[in-house]
Amino acid sequence: MNTFGILLKYEYKKLLQKKITRISLIFCIIATIFSCISDLLGDYYIDGERVDSSYHMAQIDQSYARTLNGREIDRTLLAETVEAYRKIPKTTGHYTGTAEYQQYARPYSEILTFIHMTTLLPISEIMYQWQADEQDLYARQLKQLGNDLDALFLSEGEKAFWLEKNAQIKKPFVYQAHAAYHKQFSIYQTTGLIVLTLIAVCLAGVFSDEHSRRTDQLILCSAKGKSSLYWAKMLAGAGFAAGISVLFSFLSVVLTMFLYGTEGFTAPFQLVYCFFVPMSCGQVILIAYGIMLITSVIFAVFIMFLSELTHSSIASLAIGIVLLLVTGMISIPGYYRVPAQIWQWLPFSFLAIWNIFNYYTLPLFGHYFTAWQAVPVIYLVAGLGIAAAGKPIYRKYQVTGR
Question: Which residue from 387, 382, 391 is spatially nearest to 347, judged by alpha carbons?
C-alpha cells in the first residue's frame, strides 16, 4: 500500500473541504471576473455628459484597431495619424468630444497612444507641433532606454547587454490589435495578489490547526507523524497553490480573450509597454503566468513554514498579508542598487509586469541573466531550503501539557 499517497490524498481532502477554502475561492473568482470586465461596465462621459456605453466604446475602438492590423508604424502611418489629429480644432474642452475626433482621428487613437508612450511628448504637442518623423520616433525611444538604464544605476556591461537586446528588436514595428493582452497586462498584478492572498488564507492553518485543535499529540506519535506526513503536507500545499495559480491564470486569459478578442499574440511587446525586450505580447504573458505559478508554489511553502514556526494560523496569515501590502506601498530608489533589486525580486513584489521585465540582471560567469531567467531559479532553490528548514522544527516539536 502506498502510504505516502494516502497521506497526500487525505491532506488534499482536508484543504478542499475547509469552509474557508470554498468561501475564499468563490470570493476571489468574483473579484477576478470583475477585474476583467470593469472597463466595460457603466457609461463613458466627456465633460460631464454621457456619450456612449463603455462596452460599445470599447467595441468601436477594437474595430478601428483591427483596421490597422499589419501596418508598419513608419513615416506614412505617423503622418496619417498626425494629419488626422490636426483636423481637430483647438478647444477648451476635451478634444475627444469633437466631431472631428470621432470622424477623422479616432481610428488612429492607438497610434497616437504609441507615439505618446514612445516619445513622452505631451499629447497636445504631438497633435499640433511634432513633425511625423520615423527616425525621430525611434531615436527618442532609444534615448528613453538610456535614461531608464541610468536611473537604475546599471553597470556598463549591463547597459551594453540591453542595448544589444534593443538592436534585436525589428523596427519599424508592425501594428497588431492586442486589446486582450493589454488588459491581461493591466490586471496581472491584481490577479497575482488575489492568488497569493487566497494561498495565505487557505494554507495558514496547515500545520498550526493541529496545535490549536490539540490533535498534534495523536498525529505526531503515529507511525508517519514525524516523517512522511510533513512532506505530504508540504507537497499538498504546493500542489494546491499551483492549481490555484493555473485556475486564475486560465480564468483571466479566457475572460479577456472572450471580451476583447484573440488577436495580438505576435504583437510587439513595445506596443503596450516601452520595455526593450525582444518578445511578443504572447511570449511575455506566457512567461508572466509561468512566473506566477512558481511564485505561488514558493509563497505556499513560506506560509506553511510560518504555520509550523508560529503554531498560529492567525500569525502566519497576518505576516503573509502584511508583506503583500508593504511591498506594494514601499519602493526603494534605484541609487540603492542592491537593496532596490532585492526588493523588486521578492515574491511579494515581483508579480508585476514592470518588475518581471525590469532591467536589473544577475551577472554570473560572464553572462547577464534577466529577472525572468534568474528569479524562478532563485525561488526554487529558496523554496527547497525553506521546506528543508521546516522539517527539523516539525520533528522536534514536543507536545506539552495544556
Answer: 382
Q: What is the pTM of this model?
A: 0.90
What is the C-alpha to C-alpha distance for residues 372 and 355, in angstroms, rounded to an integer? Answer: 9
DSSP string computed for 140-206: HHHHHHHHHHHHTT--HHHHHHHHHHHHTS-SSPBP---HHHHHHHHHHHHHHHHHHHHHHHHHTTT
Element (H, E) at 53: strand 49-53
Q: How far is CA 370 from the centre of its chain?
A: 16
> Which tens digit of pLDDT belongs to each residue from 386-401?
999 988 887 776 555 4
CA distance 214 to 222: 14
What is the Cα gyration radius of the chain? 25
Residue type, 195: V
The helix or strand, by DSSP H or E, that contains position 8, with its residue range, turns out to be: helix 3-17
Cell numbers 526588493 correspond to 343
- List C-alpha distances in Å: 384 to 297, 301, 380, 388: 11, 9, 6, 6
pLDDT, tens digit (0-9, with 9 covering 90-100), for 355-388: 999 999 999 888 999 999 999 999 999 999 999 9
